[in-house]
């Protein structure tokens, strides 16, 4: 355990440009290949609902539970005032959540703390597990947590760094696709209870503008992540 703690609190050498590029390409393939995306998208849902739950707690709402479903949808239930700034903040953060977690991860990697990032993620998943209220959600978080734990405990320093970069790229690249899927669903008559439509009812601002805001923010996080990755020429 002492060695593990030393690894968590110590910086690791930065990943090579090859590792950064290859993990980015793999993440892009995971998102672009539909059969894999159907499964991998559950990670985006975990981040999405986790962001709802985190902000709900920060604005003083009482978190009543989180459910994750096999169709990669999810719901976070919190108790408190049904309108106002707090509720708007909760709804606002869902779709940008994966990108915001991704850019936070990119910042940690930029400082050289790949191992700390993985163990921090594992601790976050354990806390999230306490709020899960259905069996599929429980299975999803446990399965993802088992992968993170396996890499963190048994993986070499190179494997840990590569996995941390892959996960970071995945969150940054997957967030804009999730926003596109939201608008596609709305265009075909679905998603009327989506975050964007709930924000429209609370604020009077058209839902399409909220979707646009989600898209701009996720793309901005991706651009910043690319800049921090060091793969752009200086």
Question: What would your notes on this structure say?
Answer:
This protein has ten helices and two strands; from the N terminus they run H-H-H-E-E-H-H-H-H-H-H-H. The chain is mainly alpha-helical and 234 residues long. A two-stranded antiparallel sheet has the order 1-2. Helix 3 packs across helix 8. It is globular. The mean pLDDT is 93.
Largest sheet: 2 strands, antiparallel
| Class by alpha and beta content | mainly alpha
Termini separation comes to 40 Å
Which residues form runs of ≥5 with pLDDT under 50?
none
* Average of the residue pLDDT scores: 93
Order of helices and strands: HHHEEHHHHHHH
Helix content: over 70%
The multimeric state of the shown protein is single chain
Major sheet: order of its strands?
1-2
Q: Report the principal-axis shape.
A: globular
Task: Tell me the strand percentage band.
Answer: 5-15%
Rg (C-alpha, Å): 18 Å
Total strands: 2
Counting H and I runs of at least 4 residues, what is the number of helices?
Answer: 10
Keywords: Membrane, Transmembrane, Transmembrane helix
InterPro entries: Peptidase_M50B-like
Organism: Kribbella koreensis
Protein name: M50 family metallopeptidase
Quick structural summary:
The chain crosses the membrane at residues 15-33, 85-107, 113-130, 137-156, 162-180, 207-231. It contains 10 helices and 2 strands. The chain is mainly α and 234 residues long.
């Amino acid at each position: 355990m002492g060695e593990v703690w030393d690894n968590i609190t110590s910086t690791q050498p930065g990943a090579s440009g090859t590792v950064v590029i290859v993990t980015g390409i793999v993440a892009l393939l995971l998102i672009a290949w539909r059969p894999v995306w159907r499964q991998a998208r559950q990670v985006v849902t975990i981040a999405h609902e986790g962001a709802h739950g985190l902000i709900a707690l920060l604005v003083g709402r009482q978190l009543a539970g989180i459910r994750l479903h096999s169709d990669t949808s999810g719901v976070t239930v919190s108790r408190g005032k049904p309108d106002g700034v707090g509720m708007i903040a909760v709804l606002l953060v869902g779709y940008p959540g994966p990108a915001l977690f991704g850019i936070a991860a990119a910042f940690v990697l930029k400082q050289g703390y790949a191992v700390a990032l993985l163990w921090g993620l594992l601790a976050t998943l354990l806390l999230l597990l306490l709020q899960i209220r259905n069996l599929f959600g429980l299975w999803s978080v446990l399965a993802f947590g088992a992968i993170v734990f396996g890499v963190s405990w048994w993986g070499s320093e190179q494997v840990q760094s590569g996995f941390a970069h892959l996960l970071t790229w995945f969150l940054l690249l997957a967030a804009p696709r999730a926003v596109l899927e939201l608008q596609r669903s709305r265009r075909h008559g679905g998603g009327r209870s989506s975050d964007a439509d709930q924000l429209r009812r609370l604020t009077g601002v058209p839902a399409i503008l909220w979707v646009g805001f989600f898209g701009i923010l996720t793309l901005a996080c991706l651009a910043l992540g690319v800049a921090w990755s060091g793969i752009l020429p200086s």
